[in-house]
Design goal:
InterPro entries: 3'-5'_exonuclease_dom (IPR002562), Exo_C (IPR041605), HRDC-like_sf (IPR010997), HRDC_dom (IPR002121), HRDC_dom_sf (IPR044876), RNase_D-like (IPR051086), RNaseH-like_sf (IPR012337), RNaseH_sf (IPR036397). One of its GO terms (biological process) is nucleobase-containing compound metabolic process. GO terms for molecular function: 3'-5' exonuclease activity; nucleic acid binding; nucleotide binding. By secondary structure, this protein is an alpha/beta fold. The protein folds into 3 domains: about 5-225, Ribonuclease H-like superfamily/Ribonuclease H (Nucleotidyltransferase, domain 5, 2-Layer Sandwich), CATH 3.30.420; about 235-325, DNA polymerase, domain 1 (Orthogonal Bundle), CATH 1.10.150.80; about 340-425, HRDC domain (DNA polymerase, domain 1), CATH 1.10.150.80. The chain has helices at about 5-15, 50-60, 105-110, 120-130, 140-150, 155-165, 185-195, 195-210, 215-225, 250-270, 270-275, 280-285, 290-295, 305-320, 345, 350-370, 375, 380-385, 395-405, 410-425, and strands at about 30-35, 45, 60-70, 80-90, 90-95, 115-120, 135-140, 165. The strands form 2 sheets. Strands 2-5-4-3-6-7 form a 6-stranded mixed β-sheet, with helices on both faces. A hairpin with a 2-residue loop joins strand 4 and strand 5. Helix 19 (about 395-405) packs across helix 20 (about 410-425). The protein starts with a helix and ends with a helix. The relative contact order is 0.09.
Length: about 425
Amino acid sequence: MTDAQETAAKTTLRTTGGGPPDDGVAVPPAPIPLLEPREGVPPVIADPVRLEAVIAAFAAGSGPVAVDAERASGYRYGQRAYLVQLRRKGAGTALIDPVGCPDLSALGAALADAEWDLHAATQDLPCLRDIGMVPARIFDTELAGRLAGFPRVGLGAMVENVLGYTLEKGHSAVDWSTRPLPEPWLRYAALDVELLVDLRDALEEELDRQGKLDWAQQEFAAIASAPPAPPRKDPWRRTSGMHKVRRRRQMAVVRELWTARDRIAQRRDVSPGKVLSDAAIVEAALALPSNIRALGALSGFGSRTGRRQLEQWQAAIDRARALPESELPQPGQAVAGPPPPRAWADKDPVAAARLSAARTAVSTLAERLVMPQENLIAPDTVRRLCWEPPAEASAAGVAAALAGYGARPWQIEQVSSALARALTAHSA
């Protein structure tokens, strides 16, 4: 950026950041549209030979490396990466096709000592891990924005509010499995990492000004060191509209249809919703059709559903209808931890009072620290603490309990005394 642009960016940051604006700061200038990457749109790297050159260039670069990934959510099965974007000082920008280059572990190893700058890191890290890219250190610009108190933390909003540029965001939900990728999409993808390191530097300065930089670094370290999430238990229970399904036989229909749909979607490599909608699954479960004609009359299956498709869905329904009572799913999913908060007043009124007081305390602290409550302390942690409070409800006892739930040191320091007061005020 030019000196004038850097001045404009700093002015924007001072007037829109989490802390109070400085007295007498001028209104920031209108944002500048960012239409082209500095070195133009780079070619897509889709073969091992050209990938080797990129690895060498990025290994020889300096400073943090901006990293982003594009998936085909809603179009393809799973969450694999279909494009990886990187930018580093001395190396420029690279666009890599993980379909042509499915193993990027050598690139990940070449960048092992670098800090990786990502926006909403938890969204991209799983698909990057699948292709061999695992960072040791990260800086998450979205999370940094949350901790700094920015009201809008999407990449476009952050680049505009902090750096004074506008990004074109019209291609965020396209089918990135398309080949070849259109030029406008590639330009959009390259621009996503164009200013990511600049954004990181400005946010680091702002966090330091607010006294929150160490907090952010603890959060980044926790994300980078977190193990892969385990597979969900009974994922069919997350079918949209599942709350309408009350009877166990109907639940069995949802389970059979969901499983059949997932198997087909995986084989075809398409989004499950493109095979059969959640609404159709729930409709069939509620109706319990006994034959193909009755199934085809349901709106979720419609006239465009072929006979062969109807037969496979009816077969799944018939399997559920034939199950003995002992094999039907139970109405509730066994979960570890406390019950839903709405049930606390009936199950344990004292715990409900503790939770109300604790939530008020966290809300007050979060407002004073200018950050979302869920970033100050995880709501699930607060619920667990209030449902089964420590034997010693002092600040030290609460701190030990919070540490056991995985809270970071900075969070414990900020909330333990307030939560201890909430617990002792409503002890049994």
